[in-house]
Design goal:
By secondary structure, this protein is α/β, with parallel strands linked by helices. It is built from 4 helices and 4 strands; from the N terminus they run H-H-E-H-E-H-E-E. It has one domain.
């Protein structure tokens, strides 16, 4: 896992409204804005991946922005949601659906 991501997950700063430029660069924001039928997929585990895949089968989704959210209540291995976003990318690539890089959001007080 990326050192910056480990730092975020260990310190859990408030990341609800502002994203660091390295996490969501302007070029990515512009690309998302230009793409039609973009959905946000909150990834917590395999059920989340299954739900996103199902939504893509039922709707005309062209791209997914995966998110991983932390609050003060989560537990378990942080590698799992990141592994699951990899599975999602692989599965949706077969359907020509773009999956952007994962965005981390969180607020321990939330």
């Amino acid at each position: 896992m990326d050192k910056r991501l480990l730092e975020i997950l260990s310190h859990k700063p408030n990341l609800i409204s502002d994203f660091p430029a390295w996490m969501l660069p302007e070029s990515t924001i512009n690309d998302i804005r230009r793409t039609e039928n973009v959905a946000i997929g909150e990834i917590a585990g395999r059920d989340s991946v299954a739900a996103v895949i199902r939504a893509c089968e039922e709707k005309s989704i062209q791209a997914i922005v995966p998110t991983i959210v932390y609050t003060g209540t989560e537990y378990g291995n942080w590698e799992v949601p990141f592994e699951k976003t990899g599975v999602l990318k692989h599965r949706l690539r077969e359907k020509n659906i773009r999956v952007y890089d994962t965005i981390i959001m969180g607020s321990p007080r939330f």
